[in-house]
Amino acid sequence: MYNSVFAQENEKTFPASDRVTVERVSYKNRYGISIAADMYLPRDIDRAEKHAAIAVSGPFGAVKEQAAGFYAQTMAERGFVTIAFDPSYTGESGGEPRYVTSPDISTEDFSAAVDFLVTRAEVDPERIGIIGICGWGGFAINAAAIDTRIRATVASTMYDISRANANGYFDSINADQRYELRKQLNAQRTVDAKNGTYELGGGVPDTLPDDAPQFVKDYHAYYKTDRGYHKRSFNSNSGWNKTSALSFINAPILAYSDEIRSAVLLIHGEKAHSRYFSEDAFKKLKGDNKELVIIPGASHVDLYDRPDIIPFDKLTEFFTENLK
Hints:
alpha/beta; disordered N terminus; 324 residues; Rossmann fold
């Protein structure tokens, strides 16, 4: 069921570390979709012992060779067994048609990562955590609400994709506008059905107008430059299947987040346009093992790949404490 080979090439957007070893692994989720992942292990790991493990994914529209891999590699340098995976229908993972996403399958992909990790000889099945970045921060919280095997969750620079699709940025869409959005998306379904193909929404534009919002300029600076461009990243190229948005409009992914009993850490940039997603998500969480950390001066994208800004010491402390 699970396959593993040593990585043969580095397509990653971040420098490789000589303090870890990397294996390419694959496994199936409960829908039978093959998930591709990179497994990072501390170079001096004792495989005869059981270790804490962390599964990482995100941002929404990215691949494992981008921010998720950077987080996974860094946490492996700090002693954890980690994997960075491509979500279903994306990157090197399976699933047809391509470029599709849904709240259920995206959440399931985290649980499938846990399924994989609990089978590993070097992993303690009672000490597994997850990290979700951007839109995958929301899916990570949803996974923590449904999967009690997840003992600690970090959501970094989180988007609530359901809320963003249903309400627009800053909750700017009302019920009438949402109805018009449904009409447009269902009209697109008709077009797709007749054409036998799926229209893509477009990723980050190649060029931006001078009056583009700052957060769009930030996305461009990551996804469209050598800093973060990747040939398999949707945001770097043609974007998601347009009608994927439909499944999120009627499915709020954080509905049961107030029932999470395991530890949750939310981190967000002070200047991020998306900051309100983490602040509102934190208000709903219950218990004294939940924390929100706001990083002074940081934007949304700064928490993708800036080692001087991402609070890896805090993440290490959080997982060490909650995966012991």
